[in-house]
Design a protein that fits this description.
By secondary structure, the protein is an alpha/beta fold. The chain has a single domain, classed as P-loop containing nucleotide triphosphate hydrolases (Rossmann fold, 3-Layer(aba) Sandwich), CATH 3.40.50. The chain has 11 helices and 5 strands.
Length: 195
C-alpha cells in the first residue's frame, strides 16, 4: 500500500475549506477530490440550477441509497487511483460516518484537517461570495444568504453528523483573520503532517 496521505478537509460552509485546499495545491503536488462535486454534478445532469433545497434533496437521496458514508464511498475509487502516485486532498468531508469509513479504510494514511470560523464570520463571507469569484463552473463559491447558511448548518449538524469529524480532526486551523494569517497556519500544519 502507498504511503501517500489522504488529507480530508472538514468544516462548515464558509469556514475556508476551499481557500485552504487551493493554497495547499499551490504549495505541493496533490491530487484533488471535492466530496460535494457529486451533488453538483447531479444538479447539472438534471439540467437544473443549483439551490439549497434541491442540493439537500440530492444529498439526502445519496445517503438514503448508500448510507451516511455515501460521499466517501462514492469518491473511493478516485481516492484509490490518486493515492497510488501522490498525496490527495479530499475537500469537504461531510459526516462522522464518512470519517469512520475513511479512517478504517486508510488508517495512518488518512489525515482529518478541520477549518473553523464562527457562524457570523462565515455568514458574512457567504453572502455575495459568488460575485467575488467570477466564473465558477464547478460551483465551489456559491453565495448563500445568512438564512440559507444557517439552515444548511442546522441540517449538516443534525442530519449529517458533521460536527464529529470537526471535533476529532487531527489538525485544526482557525480561520478568523486575514488570508495571509490563514496561509501561515496552513504552512505550519503541512510541516506537521509531512515532518
Amino acid at each position: 500500500m502507498s504511503k501517500n496521505k489522504l488529507i480530508c478537509i472538514v468544516g462548515m460552509c464558509g469556514a475556508g475549506k476551499s481557500e485552504v485546499a487551493d493554497y495547499m495545491m499551490g504549495k505541493r503536488q496533490f491530487g484533488y477530490v471535492r466530496f460535494g462535486q457529486i451533488t453538483l454534478d447531479e444538479v447539472k445532469r438534471m439540467g437544473k440550477k443549483p439551490n439549497e433545497a434541491l442540493e439537500k434533496k440530492i444529498r439526502e437521496a445519496f445517503r438514503k441509497k448508500h448510507g451516511m458514508a455515501a460521499f466517501a464511498i462514492l469518491n473511493g475509487s478516485k481516492f484509490d487511483d490518486l493515492l497510488k502516485t501522490e498525496n490527495v486532498i479530499g475537500d469537504g468531508l461531510y459526516s462522522w460516518e464518512e470519517y469512520v469509513y475513511l479512517k478504517d479504510k486508510y488508517g495512518d494514511q488518512f489525515v482529518c484537517l478541520a477549518v473553523y470560523a464562527p457562524p457570523g464570520t462565515r455568514y458574512r463571507r457567504l453572502d455575495g461570495r459568488a460575485k467575488k469569484h467570477g466564473t465558477d463552473d464547478d460551483l465551489r463559491f456559491r453565495s448563500f444568504t445568512p438564512a440559507e447558511a444557517a439552515s444548511r448548518d442546522k441540517a449538516e449538524i443534525e442530519n449529517l453528523n458533521k460536527a464529529g469529524p470537526i471535533v476529532m480532526a487531527d489538525y485544526l486551523i482557525l480561520n478568523t483573520q486575514s488570508i495571509p494569517a490563514l496561509r501561515k497556519r496552513v504552512d505550519e500544519t503541512l510541516e506537521q503532517i509531512f515532518d
